[in-house]
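Running this now, will post back.
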Amino acid sequence: MDHYRVFRFANGYFAASVYIPPRIYKMKAILLFCLLLAINHASATVYLTTEDFKEQTTGRKAIVAFKAPWCGHCKRLKPVWDELADKVDVLVGEVDCTVEKDLCLKQGVQGYPTIKYTTGQGWKKYQQGRDLETFEKFIRNTLRDGCLQDETLCTEEETQKLEDYKKLSVDEIHKRLENVESERESADILFKGHVEKLQRQYQTLQNEKDNKLDELGEEEAYLRFVLNIPKEEL
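Update: finished.
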């Protein structure tokens, strides 16, 4: 079947019959199908921001990769991470640290990717392998239901601790939470102070090493020069 394209001229319209081969329609249909397939199979990875991080993760089991777009290790992790998100029933998230700088600073991110996890109460650093099988095994073993999800799973020690916390008033709980946040910030400041001190020590040692190597290099140059002088000229 012919299809028409209309061209406008100054004195009116002119319709020209243009034949479009069936293969063009077939290609369009294939492209549309691929687009719909891609939409239907979009990754379940959740992209988190400073504004929604707390809301999205509080009280939930989650594992989050703090990344940077230019990071090679992050790029290699991406397909594994997206596949993991499709396979597990916990939140699998990503944070772009070049954009969400304050959030990454608060989470103590020092390098990329930094992977952290939570059972819904506090964050810990993930320090195991980065292949899909290891991630899945870790989630099964570590992010399974525990005492805070099901009290029947509590040990005697956890039960006692839970009972002690239940005796606190709402005001006491809020005060304790404020203390936790304050101590966390203090620990972070202390850590950064030690890191800065170590960096200064490192720079001092580096300078001392460079100066020593320069001295040795100069000595070596004189020795080799003299070594090549004929004996009768010495």
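Residues 1-11, 13-18, 36-41 have pLDDT under 50 and may be disordered. More later if anyone needs it.
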